[in-house]
Write a structure and sequence with these properties.
68% of the residues lie in helices and 0% in strands. It has 4 helices and no strands.
Length: 145
């Protein structure tokens, strides 16, 4: 950058203007709704698919809280991975695009990114843990023939 003769500098930004902040929080709310719905669907399908496995675990003496813990773990993993990939897919191209525009500052909204990366997956895991039944419904033994 020194070879081009352009003056580049770094400064501490206090954050975007208030109207931009409210728009960013609306984007965070929309992203949280999409993330939590996708993670909830994924967790529900995984629990339905593993119902026989959970019944087998209950039959050999596994704790009833295992089902709740597994749903919370699946939700936090799915929501964290989805949020991380989504932020990477949206943030990196935007930073690269803005950095090519001369005179346009690149301001990263750290508070909104932190909420998406930390609060949304933890909230989803707590909701999944709270609403998953601990007891396993009885299943009938299935044969392959």
């Amino acid at each position: 950058m020194a070879l081009t003769g352009d003056a580049y500098y770094s400064q501490f930004e206090l954050g975007p203007a208030t109207n931009v902040t409210s728009i960013l929080w609306l984007i965070v709310a929309g992203a949280a709704a999409i993330t939590l719905s996708a993670a909830g669907i994924t967790t529900g399908l995984a629990l339905a698919d593993g119902r026989i496995d959970h019944a087998t675990l209950a039959g050999i003496g596994a704790d009833t809280r295992l089902r709740k813990a597994m749903s919370g773990a699946q939700t936090i993993m799915t929501a964290s991975l989805g949020t991380l990939l989504g932020l990477f897919a949206g943030t990196v191209p935007m930073i690269l695009m803005l950095s090519t525009q001369p005179g346009v500052p690149v301001v990263i909204p750290w508070a909104q990114l932190a909420v998406l990366l930390i609060v949304v997956p933890v909230f989803g895991a707590l909701v999944a843990w709270a609403f998953t039944r601990g007891n396993v419904p009885l299943t009938r033994r299935q044969t392959l023939v």
